């Protein structure tokens, strides 16, 4: 089976007020004291954020256990310096992001101006192993129509700067303001993909290949396809669901490529509409059908994703787990729905953040 690894970005907040705290450097120093060679926790663009990364796993139960351990360890380290971690894709409270000290981040702030502040958002990136760049690009070409469904399932960012945005995933709308973010056209081959990335870097608009922020891309440092559309998920079990579906999509796309089946030739403009619709409504209303690109109830579109990946899910032994997780998510609602329900109950965005600290750890 293909291996899967996950990167999650978390907010660092005050445990009582929910206010973001610029404490990532202190937390990383504390982590290095415990384990000088640790590679689980990393600095992010802003000091109020922390990234965690799992090791590659073949079995979803192992991945779920590692995500839970990483979140628990992040919470312990945060507690030792007087803060807490929250798996929120945007900060519900008003905040002025504090840029982390790093030459790369200073370059971004100078190049992209105030749009850099819009990247104070937390995503979940899923890495799925591929056998070669050629297979990886074939997968990228065939994943495109299905990525908005993952966005809808992971939606966890309804609030921004103290207000309800009307979106389930406002993070994705903020992220899309970057010059290289979003869906891509068909590449056709690894050589064509490499030429496109080289041309983008040569334009001078971005610094290097690491700033090619496609919705899905070949990872810069690993032999993986990196799927980047998802919000960080409030609950760890949703992260596992997203990772499981991502692997099934990669495997299905690779099988289609080997069988000589062409990718769907949707235009980027239509893919942007599908992405916008997923960000707007999450699972609450309609999504655009990945094949027909026409409105369809969200539950039916999720069912179409399960049908499309059925053979891959069966092959990895994940069918029953995914079906159960999807049913639970459709019943419980996304992280965005949970946040809005918390606000309705408490009347306080601060209480929303504080409660989400608890939900982050299960």
Key features?
globular; Creatine Kinase, Chain A, domain 2; two-stranded antiparallel ribbon; seven-stranded antiparallel β-sheet; 14 helices; 362 residues; alpha+beta
General description of the model:
The protein is α+β, with helices and mostly antiparallel strands and 362 residues long. The chain has one domain: Creatine Kinase, Chain A, domain 2. The chain contains 14 helices and 11 strands. It has helices spanning 24-34, 60-80, 103-112, 133-143, 147-154, 170-175, 190-202, 236-258, 268-281, 298-308, 310-315, 319-332, 335-346, 349-360, and strands at 4-13, 41-43, 49-53, 84-86, 123-129, 159-160, 163-164, 216-218, 224-231, 286-288, 295-297. The mean pLDDT is 97.
Give the SSE map.
Blueprint: E1 4-13, H1 24-34, E2 41-43, E3 49-53, H2 60-80, E4 84-86, H3 103-112, E5 123-129, H4 133-143, H5 147-154, E6 159-160, E7 163-164, H6 170-175, H7 190-202, E8 216-218, E9 224-231, H8 236-258, H9 268-281, E10 286-288, E11 295-297, H10 298-308, H11 310-315, H12 319-332, H13 335-346, H14 349-360
Antiparallel strand pairs: 1-3, 1-4, 1-5, 2-3, 5-9, 6-7, 8-9, 10-11
